[in-house]
Write the structure tokens for this entry.
Amino acid sequence: QVHLVESGGGLVQAGGSLRLSCAVSGRTFTYYAVGWFRQAPGKEREFVAAIIWDGSSTAYADSVKGRFTISRDNPKNTVYLQMNILKPEDTAVYYCAGRRGYYSDRAELYDHWGQGTQVTVSS
């Protein structure tokens, strides 16, 4: 069983930064791709960013390109999402998810999910 726990969310003013962490425990983390998704009230869950198991390839939603950076530290079993120049429309619950193999922007292809962390950006 793989467990993912997000942390680092909070309240920040527009233009500010936050760094989310996703700590993974359980089975071998190294071969898991990890994605970040978010869900705002009344909206569907949407893809934010993803990273392949060795960090050699990443993907971003257009809405966050140039502002968010995903990275991973495999010895620490942790994936990070650095979020800069935050906007009110980034307000959502952020989830990390894991799957074996290559990453995907489709939430239904991920097998393991964290409980989420709230990010609120005030204007």
About this structure: The two ends are 40 Å apart (CA to CA). The first strand starts at residue 2 and ends at 7.
